User: Fold this.
Amino acid sequence: MTQPTPAGGPTPEGRDATVPLPAAAGGGPVSHAIFRLARLHRMHAGQLLRPLGLHPGQELVMMQLWELGAQRQSDLVRLLDSDAATMTRTVQRLEQAGFVRRRPDPTDRRASLVEPTPASQALRHEVERVWTQLEDLVAADLSADERTDARHTLERLEHNLAQAAADPDRAADARP
Amino acid sequence: MTQPTPAGGPTPEGRDATVPLPAAAGGGPVSHAIFRLARLHRMHAGQLLRPLGLHPGQELVMMQLWELGAQRQSDLVRLLDSDAATMTRTVQRLEQAGFVRRRPDPTDRRASLVEPTPASQALRHEVERVWTQLEDLVAADLSADERTDARHTLERLEHNLAQAAADPDRAADARP
DNA sequence: GGTGGTTACCTGCTCGAACAAGTAAACCCC
DNA sequence: GGGGTTTACTTGTTCGAGCAGGTAACCACC
Assistant:
C-alpha cells in the first residue's frame, strides 16, 4: 500500500526550534491529547453504560436502530463507520442480550435485518440519559458557544484524518 | 422520528464535514465527535505503526522508555495513565518482539525493570517519524496557534473527565 | 445459461482495554 | 516480630477493533 515515502518533500527540520525534540514529551501534542482524552472518555462511557448491560460501542448501534428502525448489518457498518466483522459480533451479543432481533431480509437472502426489540425500548431512555450525562461531564465548564467551538475543533481534526484516509497522497506530504 | 435536525440547536450549517451523524442528535455532540475522532486517529496510528511491527499503544511505552530509560511497570502505568494488567501483557509482547528487556528491580523484589533493547533504537527514528506524520495529518490545516488552541481544548475536556473521575459527586449532579 | 466479479456476512486470529481475583513482597504499626 | 494493609505484578475473562480468509447469494455481461 501507500508507502509514506518522503519523496519530494523531505526537510523534516523546518520546524520551530523551540521544542527540544519530538519524542514522547513533545512528540505529537495534539495526537497525544487525543489519545488521552479518548481513553478517559471511553472509560467514563463504559462505567456509565455498564449498569445498563451495554459495552461501549454497543450503545451506538442501538441508537441507530432506535432512530432509524430495522437496518441491515451493512447499513449499520456504514452508518457507524465500523467494521463488518466487529458488527457481526456486536449484533450477535446484542441479540443474545435480547436487545435486538435478526430476521432475513426478504429482498436479499445474503442480508439480515437487525431491529430493536420492544424490550430494548426501556433501555432507550437510560442510554439517552447516560449520553446527556457524559456530555455534561466532558463539557462541564463550557458555555454553549464553547461547546460548539469544541465540537468544531474535533470535527476539523476528524475531517483532516478522513481526508488523509481518502487521499493518501496528501498524507505523505502533510507539511505546510 | 428521523428528524435530521437537532431540535433547538443553533447548529450553523457547516455540516458535510464528514460522515452523516444522524442519531445521537440531542445525545452528545461533543461526545460523539470525540468517539469518531478517536477511532479515526487510532486507525491511522495503527496503519502507520504496522510496518514497524508495533500495535497502537505499544509505541507510547517505547517512547517513555527511550526518553526516560529503564522504568518499572508501575511507573509506566502511571506515566501513561494505563492499566496494570494491560501493561503486563503489552510489556510481555514487546519483550517477545525483542524491543524491551526485563530484569528484576534490585531494590524491590516485587517489581521488574523494563528497558529498551539496543535493537529497539532502530525503531526510535521510525516511531518519531510516524508520530510527526500523524501530527501533521491530524492538524494538517491548522496554524501553530490553532494547534495550541486545539490542544488546549482537548486538554480541557480531558481535565473535565479527570475531575469527574476523581470527584464522583460532581458527576452525579449532572441531572435535574 | 454460464462465467466472473461484487456484496453480505461469518469465523479465526491478534491486540489493547478494562474488571476481577489471586500471589507475593514490602511496609506499617502495635 | 507478628498481623494487617498496601503495592507490584500476573492471569483469566469479556469486549471492541482490525486484518485475513471463506462461503453464499446476487448481479452484470457475454
